[in-house]
What we know:
The complex is a heterodimer of chains A (128) and B (408).
Chain A: E1 2-9, H1 14-23, E2 30-36, E3 43-47, E4 50-54, E5 57-67, H2 71-82, E6 91-97, H3 109-112, H4 119-127
Antiparallel strand pairs in A: 1-5, 1-6, 2-5, 3-4
Chain B: H1 7-32, H2 40-67, E1 70-71, E2 75-76, H3 100-118, H4 128-151, H5 156-160, H6 168-186, H7 202-221, H8 229-255, H9 261-275, H10 284-307, H11 316-334, H12 353-383, H13 390-395, H14 397-402
Antiparallel strand pairs in B: 1-2
Amino acid sequence: MLKKIEAIIREDKVNDVVDALKAIGIMGLNVFEVRGHGRQGGIQLVGRAGTYQVNMLPKIQINIVLSDRNLEAAIEAILKSAHTGEPGDGLIFVTPVEEVIRIRTRERGQDAMMYPGDIDDRKKKAAG
Amino acid sequence: MAPQINAGDTAWILVSCALVLLMTPGLAFFYGGMVRRKNVLSTLTLSYIFMALIGVQWVAYGYSLSFGSSIGGLIGGLNFIGFQGVDAAPNPDYAKTIPQGLFAAFQMMFAVITPALITGAFVERVRFKSFLLFSLLWATLVYDPLCHWVWGQGGWLKNLGVLDFAGGTVVHIAAGFSALAFALVIGPRRGFGKSPMEPNNIPLTVLGTGLLWVGWFGFNAGSALAANGVAVNALLTTNTSAATAGLVWMVLSWLDGRPSTLGIATGMVVGLAAVTPASGFITPMASMVVGAVAAPLSYYAIRFRDRRKLDESLDVWACHGISSTWGMIAAGLFATVAVNSDGANGLFFGNPGQIGIQLLAVAVTMVFSFSVTFVLAKALNASIGLRVKPMEEEVGLDISSHGERSYS
Lengths: 128, 408
Protein backbone atom coordinates (compact mmCIF):
# COMPACT_ATOMS: atom_id res chain seq x y z
CA MET A 1 0.00 0.00 0.00
CA LEU A 2 1.20 3.47 -0.89
CA LYS A 3 0.46 6.48 1.27
CA LYS A 4 0.84 10.21 0.89
CA ILE A 5 1.90 12.46 3.76
CA GLU A 6 0.98 16.13 3.58
CA ALA A 7 2.69 17.87 6.47
CA ILE A 8 1.93 21.57 7.13
CA ILE A 9 4.82 22.93 9.17
CA ARG A 10 6.46 26.19 10.24
CA GLU A 11 8.56 27.96 7.58
CA ASP A 12 11.56 27.97 9.87
CA LYS A 13 11.32 24.20 10.50
CA VAL A 14 11.66 23.11 6.88
CA ASN A 15 15.39 22.35 7.02
CA ASP A 16 15.06 20.44 10.31
CA VAL A 17 12.24 18.29 8.93
CA VAL A 18 13.95 17.57 5.61
CA ASP A 19 17.16 16.63 7.46
CA ALA A 20 15.27 14.36 9.88
CA LEU A 21 13.56 12.56 6.98
CA LYS A 22 16.84 12.18 5.12
CA ALA A 23 18.44 10.75 8.26
CA ILE A 24 15.98 7.84 8.26
CA GLY A 25 16.25 7.33 4.51
CA ILE A 26 13.21 9.19 3.14
CA MET A 27 14.77 10.58 -0.03
CA GLY A 28 11.99 11.92 -2.25
CA LEU A 29 9.79 14.82 -1.23
CA ASN A 30 8.26 18.07 -2.47
CA VAL A 31 8.09 21.35 -0.61
CA PHE A 32 5.38 23.99 -1.20
CA GLU A 33 5.04 27.51 0.11
CA VAL A 34 1.43 27.78 1.27
CA ARG A 35 -0.71 30.29 3.19
CA GLY A 36 -3.44 29.61 5.65
CA HIS A 37 -4.38 29.33 9.26
CA GLY A 38 -5.62 26.80 11.78
CA ARG A 39 -7.37 27.25 15.10
CA GLN A 40 -4.85 29.92 16.06
CA GLY A 41 -6.49 32.17 13.44
CA GLY A 42 -3.61 34.48 12.54
CA ILE A 43 -1.12 36.85 14.11
CA GLN A 44 -0.70 40.53 14.92
CA LEU A 45 1.85 42.53 12.94
CA VAL A 46 3.09 46.03 13.73
CA GLY A 47 2.15 48.71 11.20
CA ARG A 48 2.77 52.44 10.89
CA ALA A 49 0.88 53.33 14.03
CA GLY A 50 0.00 50.25 16.07
CA THR A 51 -0.81 46.65 15.28
CA TYR A 52 -3.05 44.92 12.76
CA GLN A 53 -4.30 41.37 12.33
CA VAL A 54 -3.05 39.12 9.53
CA ASN A 55 -5.12 35.99 8.91
CA MET A 56 -3.22 34.15 6.18
CA LEU A 57 0.13 33.04 7.53
CA PRO A 58 2.94 31.67 5.39
CA LYS A 59 3.53 27.95 6.02
CA ILE A 60 5.45 25.13 4.37
CA GLN A 61 3.74 22.00 3.07
CA ILE A 62 5.90 18.91 2.59
CA ASN A 63 4.46 16.13 0.42
CA ILE A 64 5.90 12.61 0.60
CA VAL A 65 4.62 9.46 -1.10
CA LEU A 66 5.90 6.28 0.56
CA SER A 67 5.14 2.66 1.38
CA ASP A 68 2.83 2.20 4.38
CA ARG A 69 5.50 0.10 6.14
CA ASN A 70 7.63 3.27 6.40
CA LEU A 71 4.74 5.53 7.34
CA GLU A 72 5.11 5.56 11.14
CA ALA A 73 8.87 6.13 11.00
CA ALA A 74 8.34 9.15 8.73
CA ILE A 75 5.54 10.53 10.90
CA GLU A 76 7.70 10.17 14.00
CA ALA A 77 10.60 12.00 12.28
CA ILE A 78 8.29 14.90 11.35
CA LEU A 79 6.67 15.04 14.80
CA LYS A 80 10.07 15.28 16.47
CA SER A 81 11.67 17.76 14.07
CA ALA A 82 8.71 20.11 13.53
CA HIS A 83 7.67 20.39 17.17
CA THR A 84 8.03 23.57 19.27
CA GLY A 85 5.02 23.17 21.57
CA GLU A 86 3.63 26.60 20.60
CA PRO A 87 0.42 27.14 18.59
CA GLY A 88 1.19 27.05 14.86
CA ASP A 89 3.27 23.86 14.77
CA GLY A 90 1.00 22.50 12.04
CA LEU A 91 -0.72 19.26 11.03
CA ILE A 92 0.04 15.99 9.23
CA PHE A 93 -2.48 14.49 6.79
CA VAL A 94 -2.17 10.89 5.52
CA THR A 95 -4.10 9.59 2.48
CA PRO A 96 -3.92 6.46 0.33
CA VAL A 97 -2.33 6.70 -3.12
CA GLU A 98 -3.67 4.72 -6.10
CA GLU A 99 -0.54 4.40 -8.18
CA VAL A 100 3.00 5.73 -8.65
CA ILE A 101 4.83 5.60 -11.99
CA ARG A 102 8.47 6.53 -12.45
CA ILE A 103 8.68 8.33 -15.79
CA ARG A 104 12.28 7.35 -16.58
CA THR A 105 11.84 3.59 -16.21
CA ARG A 106 8.07 3.04 -16.36
CA GLU A 107 8.33 1.17 -13.04
CA ARG A 108 5.06 1.11 -11.10
CA GLY A 109 3.93 0.89 -7.47
CA GLN A 110 6.47 -0.15 -4.83
CA ASP A 111 9.21 -0.56 -7.44
CA ALA A 112 8.85 3.03 -8.52
CA MET A 113 9.46 4.13 -4.90
CA MET A 114 12.89 2.49 -4.45
CA TYR A 115 16.15 4.43 -4.37
CA PRO A 116 19.59 3.04 -3.59
CA GLY A 117 20.34 3.93 0.05
CA ASP A 118 16.75 4.68 0.99
CA ILE A 119 14.85 3.40 4.00
CA ASP A 120 13.93 0.06 2.32
CA ASP A 121 17.39 -0.46 0.90
CA ARG A 122 18.88 0.07 4.37
CA LYS A 123 16.44 -2.37 5.98
CA LYS A 124 17.31 -4.99 3.37
CA LYS A 125 21.03 -4.54 3.99
CA ALA A 126 20.54 -4.65 7.77
CA ALA A 127 18.59 -7.91 7.42
CA GLY A 128 21.59 -9.24 5.55
CA MET B 1 23.57 98.32 -8.91
CA ALA B 2 22.49 95.64 -11.36
CA PRO B 3 21.98 92.18 -9.88
CA GLN B 4 25.05 89.98 -10.13
CA ILE B 5 25.03 86.24 -10.72
CA ASN B 6 26.90 84.44 -7.95
CA ALA B 7 28.56 81.20 -9.04
CA GLY B 8 28.38 79.58 -5.60
CA ASP B 9 24.68 80.33 -5.19
CA THR B 10 23.94 79.15 -8.71
CA ALA B 11 25.87 75.90 -8.22
CA TRP B 12 24.06 75.14 -4.99
CA ILE B 13 20.60 75.76 -6.43
CA LEU B 14 21.47 73.62 -9.49
CA VAL B 15 22.30 70.80 -7.08
CA SER B 16 19.22 71.49 -4.97
CA CYS B 17 17.05 71.35 -8.06
CA ALA B 18 18.36 67.85 -8.81
CA LEU B 19 17.91 66.82 -5.16
CA VAL B 20 14.26 67.92 -5.12
CA LEU B 21 13.61 66.16 -8.44
CA LEU B 22 14.87 62.95 -6.81
CA MET B 23 12.19 63.25 -4.14
CA THR B 24 9.42 62.33 -6.57
CA PRO B 25 10.93 58.91 -7.38
CA GLY B 26 11.65 58.64 -3.65
CA LEU B 27 8.01 59.30 -2.87
CA ALA B 28 6.92 56.84 -5.57
CA PHE B 29 8.86 54.06 -3.86
CA PHE B 30 7.83 55.24 -0.39
CA TYR B 31 4.21 54.79 -1.48
CA GLY B 32 4.87 51.82 -3.80
CA GLY B 33 6.08 49.67 -0.94
CA MET B 34 2.93 50.20 1.10
CA VAL B 35 0.29 49.06 -1.39
CA ARG B 36 -0.62 45.50 -2.31
CA ARG B 37 1.51 43.71 -4.92
CA LYS B 38 -1.12 44.03 -7.63
CA ASN B 39 -0.94 47.86 -7.50
CA VAL B 40 2.78 48.61 -7.28
CA LEU B 41 3.27 49.84 -10.86
CA SER B 42 0.08 51.84 -10.69
CA THR B 43 1.23 53.54 -7.49
CA LEU B 44 4.69 54.29 -8.91
CA THR B 45 3.09 55.75 -12.03
CA LEU B 46 0.78 58.02 -10.04
CA SER B 47 3.90 59.78 -8.71
CA TYR B 48 6.25 59.50 -11.68
CA ILE B 49 3.71 60.91 -14.16
CA PHE B 50 4.00 64.33 -12.47
CA MET B 51 7.59 64.70 -13.65
CA ALA B 52 6.08 64.61 -17.15
CA LEU B 53 2.74 66.35 -16.56
CA ILE B 54 3.99 69.28 -14.47
CA GLY B 55 7.26 69.32 -16.43
CA VAL B 56 5.13 70.53 -19.33
CA GLN B 57 2.45 72.49 -17.41
CA TRP B 58 5.01 74.54 -15.47
CA VAL B 59 6.88 75.72 -18.58
CA ALA B 60 3.66 76.30 -20.52
CA TYR B 61 1.83 78.41 -17.91
CA GLY B 62 2.24 77.11 -14.33
CA TYR B 63 5.27 79.25 -13.51
CA SER B 64 3.57 82.32 -14.90
CA LEU B 65 0.39 81.80 -12.85
CA SER B 66 2.53 81.30 -9.75
CA PHE B 67 5.26 83.90 -10.17
CA GLY B 68 4.08 86.26 -12.93
CA SER B 69 3.17 89.90 -12.23
CA SER B 70 0.54 89.79 -9.52
CA ILE B 71 -3.10 90.40 -10.38
CA GLY B 72 -4.53 91.74 -7.13
CA GLY B 73 -2.36 89.45 -5.02
CA LEU B 74 -4.49 86.49 -6.16
CA ILE B 75 -2.78 85.06 -9.24
CA GLY B 76 0.28 85.65 -11.37
CA GLY B 77 -0.14 87.27 -14.77
CA LEU B 78 0.69 85.75 -18.12
CA ASN B 79 3.99 87.59 -18.61
CA PHE B 80 6.10 84.43 -18.11
CA ILE B 81 3.96 82.16 -20.27
CA GLY B 82 6.06 79.62 -22.14
CA PHE B 83 9.00 80.76 -19.95
CA GLN B 84 9.37 83.91 -22.04
CA GLY B 85 11.95 86.13 -20.42
CA VAL B 86 12.78 83.37 -17.95
CA ASP B 87 16.46 83.06 -18.74
CA ALA B 88 19.98 83.61 -17.49
CA ALA B 89 19.20 87.02 -16.00
CA PRO B 90 18.20 87.10 -12.32
CA ASN B 91 14.74 88.19 -11.22
CA PRO B 92 15.47 90.41 -8.19
CA ASP B 93 11.91 89.87 -6.89
CA TYR B 94 12.83 86.26 -6.08
CA ALA B 95 16.56 85.64 -6.14
CA LYS B 96 19.11 88.33 -6.92
CA THR B 97 22.13 86.12 -7.50
CA ILE B 98 20.92 83.20 -9.63
CA PRO B 99 19.38 83.08 -13.11
CA GLN B 100 15.58 83.29 -13.11
CA GLY B 101 15.58 80.14 -15.26
CA LEU B 102 17.14 78.28 -12.34
CA PHE B 103 14.69 79.72 -9.82
CA ALA B 104 11.85 78.62 -12.11
CA ALA B 105 13.32 75.12 -12.51
CA PHE B 106 13.82 74.76 -8.74
CA GLN B 107 10.21 75.83 -8.15
CA MET B 108 9.08 73.36 -10.83
CA MET B 109 10.31 70.48 -8.69
CA PHE B 110 8.05 71.63 -5.85
CA ALA B 111 5.11 71.84 -8.24
CA VAL B 112 5.92 68.28 -9.38
CA ILE B 113 6.06 66.60 -5.98
CA THR B 114 3.09 68.35 -4.35
CA PRO B 115 0.30 66.70 -6.37
CA ALA B 116 2.26 63.42 -6.18
CA LEU B 117 1.90 63.58 -2.40
CA ILE B 118 -1.91 63.58 -2.74
CA THR B 119 -1.91 60.26 -4.61
CA GLY B 120 -1.46 58.37 -1.32
CA ALA B 121 -5.13 59.11 -0.65
CA PHE B 122 -6.58 57.21 -3.59
CA VAL B 123 -4.10 54.48 -4.56
CA GLU B 124 -5.38 51.03 -5.59
CA ARG B 125 -8.73 52.30 -6.92
CA VAL B 126 -8.43 55.54 -8.89
CA ARG B 127 -9.25 55.60 -12.59
CA PHE B 128 -6.11 56.76 -14.41
CA LYS B 129 -7.85 59.04 -16.92
CA SER B 130 -9.82 60.82 -14.19
CA PHE B 131 -6.68 61.09 -12.09
CA LEU B 132 -4.79 62.81 -14.94
CA LEU B 133 -7.57 65.30 -15.47
CA PHE B 134 -7.90 65.96 -11.75
CA SER B 135 -4.16 66.47 -11.42
CA LEU B 136 -3.93 69.04 -14.20
CA LEU B 137 -6.93 70.92 -12.79
CA TRP B 138 -5.52 70.73 -9.25
CA ALA B 139 -2.12 72.07 -10.31
CA THR B 140 -3.83 74.96 -12.11
CA LEU B 141 -6.63 75.78 -9.66
CA VAL B 142 -5.02 74.96 -6.29
CA TYR B 143 -1.22 74.83 -6.50
CA ASP B 144 -0.53 77.78 -8.79
CA PRO B 145 -2.79 80.28 -6.96
CA LEU B 146 -1.67 79.13 -3.51
CA CYS B 147 1.97 79.31 -4.56
CA HIS B 148 1.35 82.86 -5.75
CA TRP B 149 -0.36 83.89 -2.50
CA VAL B 150 2.47 82.67 -0.32
CA TRP B 151 5.61 83.07 -2.44
CA GLY B 152 4.72 85.22 -5.46
CA GLN B 153 5.77 88.88 -5.47
CA GLY B 154 2.62 90.75 -4.40
CA GLY B 155 0.88 87.59 -3.18
CA TRP B 156 -1.60 88.53 -0.46
CA LEU B 157 -0.33 86.11 2.19
CA LYS B 158 3.27 87.05 1.46
CA ASN B 159 2.32 90.72 1.91
CA LEU B 160 0.82 89.86 5.32
CA GLY B 161 4.25 88.53 6.32
CA VAL B 162 3.53 84.81 6.58
CA LEU B 163 6.58 82.65 7.33
CA ASP B 164 6.62 79.57 5.12
CA PHE B 165 10.22 78.82 4.25
CA ALA B 166 9.89 75.78 1.96
CA GLY B 167 6.22 74.90 1.63
CA GLY B 168 4.32 74.04 4.80
CA THR B 169 1.20 75.59 3.34
CA VAL B 170 1.85 75.43 -0.41
CA VAL B 171 3.09 71.84 -0.37
CA HIS B 172 2.23 69.83 2.73
CA ILE B 173 -0.98 71.30 4.14
CA ALA B 174 -2.39 71.71 0.64
CA ALA B 175 -1.54 68.10 -0.23
CA GLY B 176 -2.75 66.75 3.11
CA PHE B 177 -6.15 68.41 3.10
CA SER B 178 -6.68 67.75 -0.61
CA ALA B 179 -5.94 64.09 0.13
CA LEU B 180 -8.58 64.12 2.86
CA ALA B 181 -11.19 65.66 0.55
CA PHE B 182 -10.42 63.25 -2.30
CA ALA B 183 -10.58 60.22 0.01
CA LEU B 184 -14.00 61.29 1.27
CA VAL B 185 -15.33 61.51 -2.29
CA ILE B 186 -13.77 58.37 -3.80
CA GLY B 187 -14.59 56.13 -0.82
CA PRO B 188 -12.70 53.17 0.63
CA ARG B 189 -10.96 50.36 -1.24
CA ARG B 190 -13.01 47.18 -1.63
CA GLY B 191 -12.58 45.11 1.51
CA PHE B 192 -11.14 48.00 3.53
CA GLY B 193 -11.51 47.24 7.25
CA LYS B 194 -12.51 43.63 6.55
CA SER B 195 -9.38 42.01 5.17
CA PRO B 196 -5.88 43.27 5.99
CA MET B 197 -4.19 45.38 3.28
CA GLU B 198 -0.60 44.34 3.88
CA PRO B 199 2.26 46.40 2.47
CA ASN B 200 3.84 44.38 -0.34
CA ASN B 201 7.43 45.53 0.12
CA ILE B 202 8.47 47.57 3.14
CA PRO B 203 12.12 47.66 1.92
CA LEU B 204 10.93 49.82 -1.02
CA THR B 205 9.33 52.21 1.46
CA VAL B 206 12.51 52.36 3.52
CA LEU B 207 14.55 53.07 0.38
CA GLY B 208 12.07 55.80 -0.56
CA THR B 209 12.46 57.33 2.88
CA GLY B 210 16.22 57.56 2.39
CA LEU B 211 15.81 59.25 -0.99
CA LEU B 212 13.28 61.67 0.49
CA TRP B 213 15.56 62.62 3.36
CA VAL B 214 18.49 63.28 0.99
CA GLY B 215 16.23 65.22 -1.36
CA TRP B 216 14.84 67.26 1.50
CA PHE B 217 18.23 68.93 1.97
CA GLY B 218 17.66 70.45 -1.47
CA PHE B 219 14.03 71.19 -0.66
CA ASN B 220 14.71 73.12 2.55
CA ALA B 221 18.34 74.24 2.39
CA GLY B 222 17.87 75.05 -1.30
CA SER B 223 14.94 77.30 -0.38
CA ALA B 224 17.49 79.80 0.95
CA LEU B 225 18.09 80.36 -2.79
CA ALA B 226 21.73 80.96 -1.96
CA ALA B 227 24.74 79.10 -0.60
CA ASN B 228 24.82 80.89 2.73
CA GLY B 229 24.29 80.59 6.46
CA VAL B 230 20.52 80.41 6.16
CA ALA B 231 20.90 77.38 3.88
CA VAL B 232 23.22 75.69 6.35
CA ASN B 233 20.83 76.40 9.22
CA ALA B 234 17.93 74.98 7.19
CA LEU B 235 19.92 71.82 6.50
CA LEU B 236 20.64 71.42 10.22
CA THR B 237 17.05 72.01 11.34
CA THR B 238 15.81 69.62 8.65
CA ASN B 239 18.12 66.85 9.78
CA THR B 240 17.46 67.44 13.47
CA SER B 241 13.67 67.40 13.15
CA ALA B 242 13.71 64.22 11.03
CA ALA B 243 16.08 62.54 13.48
CA THR B 244 14.00 63.49 16.52
CA ALA B 245 10.68 62.50 14.97
CA GLY B 246 12.16 59.15 13.87
CA LEU B 247 13.30 58.42 17.44
CA VAL B 248 10.02 59.50 19.04
CA TRP B 249 8.00 57.45 16.53
CA MET B 250 10.19 54.44 17.31
CA VAL B 251 9.33 54.80 21.01
CA LEU B 252 5.59 55.20 20.30
CA SER B 253 5.64 52.10 18.12
CA TRP B 254 7.62 50.19 20.73
CA LEU B 255 5.09 51.09 23.45
CA ASP B 256 2.35 49.71 21.19
CA GLY B 257 4.20 46.46 20.47
CA ARG B 258 7.50 46.54 18.61
CA PRO B 259 9.72 49.26 17.09
CA SER B 260 8.32 48.95 13.56
CA THR B 261 10.61 49.66 10.60
CA LEU B 262 7.71 51.14 8.65
CA GLY B 263 6.88 53.24 11.71
CA ILE B 264 10.41 54.61 12.09
CA ALA B 265 10.54 55.48 8.38
CA THR B 266 7.15 57.20 8.65
CA GLY B 267 8.34 59.18 11.68
CA MET B 268 11.36 60.44 9.75
CA VAL B 269 9.18 61.70 6.88
CA VAL B 270 6.81 63.32 9.38
CA GLY B 271 9.75 65.16 10.96
CA LEU B 272 10.83 66.38 7.52
CA ALA B 273 7.34 67.59 6.60
CA ALA B 274 6.90 69.31 9.96
CA VAL B 275 10.09 71.37 9.88
CA THR B 276 9.70 72.43 6.23
CA PRO B 277 7.90 75.77 6.80
CA ALA B 278 10.09 76.67 9.79
CA SER B 279 13.45 75.32 8.63
CA GLY B 280 14.94 78.64 7.53
CA PHE B 281 13.75 80.63 10.55
CA ILE B 282 14.39 78.55 13.68
CA THR B 283 17.44 77.15 15.49
CA PRO B 284 18.47 73.47 15.47
CA MET B 285 17.37 73.11 19.13
CA ALA B 286 13.91 74.49 18.28
CA SER B 287 13.71 72.00 15.40
CA MET B 288 14.20 69.21 17.94
CA VAL B 289 10.97 70.36 19.59
CA VAL B 290 9.31 70.52 16.17
CA GLY B 291 10.19 66.90 15.42
CA ALA B 292 9.38 65.65 18.92
CA VAL B 293 5.87 67.13 18.85
CA ALA B 294 5.18 66.26 15.20
CA ALA B 295 5.65 62.52 15.75
CA PRO B 296 2.84 61.96 18.32
CA LEU B 297 0.55 64.39 16.47
CA SER B 298 0.80 62.38 13.24
CA TYR B 299 0.88 59.03 15.02
CA TYR B 300 -2.42 59.66 16.76
CA ALA B 301 -3.86 61.34 13.67
CA ILE B 302 -3.34 58.01 11.86
CA ARG B 303 -5.08 56.22 14.75
CA PHE B 304 -7.95 58.71 14.63
CA ARG B 305 -8.32 58.34 10.86
CA ASP B 306 -8.28 54.56 11.22
CA ARG B 307 -10.94 54.57 13.95
CA ARG B 308 -13.17 56.74 11.76
CA LYS B 309 -12.93 53.96 9.11
CA LEU B 310 -11.72 56.54 6.59
CA ASP B 311 -9.59 55.02 3.84
CA GLU B 312 -7.19 57.90 3.25
CA SER B 313 -4.97 55.05 2.27
CA LEU B 314 -1.38 56.15 2.89
CA ASP B 315 -2.09 58.88 5.47
CA VAL B 316 -1.15 61.99 3.52
CA TRP B 317 -3.42 64.05 5.77
CA ALA B 318 -1.96 62.68 9.00
CA CYS B 319 1.69 62.67 7.91
CA HIS B 320 1.85 65.88 5.86
CA GLY B 321 -1.23 67.97 6.64
CA ILE B 322 -1.12 67.63 10.41
CA SER B 323 2.65 67.74 10.87
CA SER B 324 3.12 70.78 8.66
CA THR B 325 0.24 72.58 10.40
CA TRP B 326 2.26 72.19 13.56
CA GLY B 327 5.38 73.30 11.65
CA MET B 328 3.64 76.52 10.55
CA ILE B 329 2.63 77.22 14.15
CA ALA B 330 6.15 76.35 15.30
CA ALA B 331 7.53 78.94 12.88
CA GLY B 332 5.25 81.47 14.59
CA LEU B 333 6.64 80.42 17.97
CA PHE B 334 10.36 79.86 17.42
CA ALA B 335 11.30 82.09 14.45
CA THR B 336 14.10 84.51 15.15
CA VAL B 337 15.79 87.12 12.99
CA ALA B 338 19.06 85.96 14.55
CA VAL B 339 18.78 82.93 12.25
CA ASN B 340 17.38 84.73 9.22
CA SER B 341 17.33 88.51 8.97
CA ASP B 342 14.85 88.27 6.08
CA GLY B 343 12.40 86.39 8.34
CA ALA B 344 10.67 87.63 11.46
CA ASN B 345 10.56 86.97 15.17
CA GLY B 346 8.02 84.55 16.61
CA LEU B 347 6.10 84.57 19.89
CA PHE B 348 9.10 83.48 21.97
CA PHE B 349 11.15 86.32 20.54
CA GLY B 350 8.66 89.05 21.37
CA ASN B 351 6.37 89.00 18.36
CA PRO B 352 3.04 87.36 19.31
CA GLY B 353 1.37 88.76 16.20
CA GLN B 354 3.26 86.29 13.99
CA ILE B 355 1.18 83.41 15.39
CA GLY B 356 -1.99 85.04 14.10
CA ILE B 357 -0.54 85.41 10.60
CA GLN B 358 0.62 81.79 10.65
CA LEU B 359 -2.80 80.51 11.78
CA LEU B 360 -4.54 82.57 9.13
CA ALA B 361 -2.32 81.13 6.38
CA VAL B 362 -2.92 77.60 7.70
CA ALA B 363 -6.69 78.09 7.84
CA VAL B 364 -6.83 79.65 4.39
CA THR B 365 -4.74 76.80 2.92
CA MET B 366 -6.86 74.12 4.59
CA VAL B 367 -10.19 75.59 3.52
CA PHE B 368 -9.04 76.50 0.00
CA SER B 369 -7.32 73.20 -0.84
CA PHE B 370 -9.99 71.03 0.80
CA SER B 371 -12.95 72.76 -0.81
CA VAL B 372 -11.56 73.11 -4.34
CA THR B 373 -10.42 69.47 -4.29
CA PHE B 374 -13.77 68.34 -2.92
CA VAL B 375 -15.67 70.15 -5.68
CA LEU B 376 -13.27 68.92 -8.41
CA ALA B 377 -13.49 65.33 -7.19
CA LYS B 378 -17.29 65.46 -6.90
CA ALA B 379 -17.62 66.91 -10.40
CA LEU B 380 -15.31 64.29 -11.93
CA ASN B 381 -17.02 61.51 -9.98
CA ALA B 382 -20.43 62.60 -11.29
CA SER B 383 -19.22 62.97 -14.88
CA ILE B 384 -16.51 60.51 -15.92
CA GLY B 385 -16.20 58.59 -12.61
CA LEU B 386 -13.25 58.53 -10.23
CA ARG B 387 -13.03 54.79 -9.62
CA VAL B 388 -12.16 51.77 -11.67
CA LYS B 389 -14.80 49.02 -11.98
CA PRO B 390 -15.04 46.58 -9.05
CA MET B 391 -13.60 43.78 -11.19
CA GLU B 392 -10.66 45.97 -12.25
CA GLU B 393 -10.01 46.81 -8.61
CA GLU B 394 -10.02 43.11 -7.67
CA VAL B 395 -7.57 42.25 -10.46
CA GLY B 396 -5.36 45.17 -9.50
CA LEU B 397 -4.53 48.37 -11.33
CA ASP B 398 -1.17 47.11 -12.65
CA ILE B 399 -3.01 44.77 -15.00
CA SER B 400 -6.33 46.54 -15.42
CA SER B 401 -5.04 50.11 -15.92
CA HIS B 402 -1.57 49.57 -17.36
CA GLY B 403 -1.59 46.04 -18.80
CA GLU B 404 1.58 45.14 -16.91
CA ARG B 405 2.69 43.12 -13.91
CA SER B 406 5.23 44.26 -11.33
CA TYR B 407 6.52 40.75 -10.73
CA SER B 408 6.22 37.81 -13.08
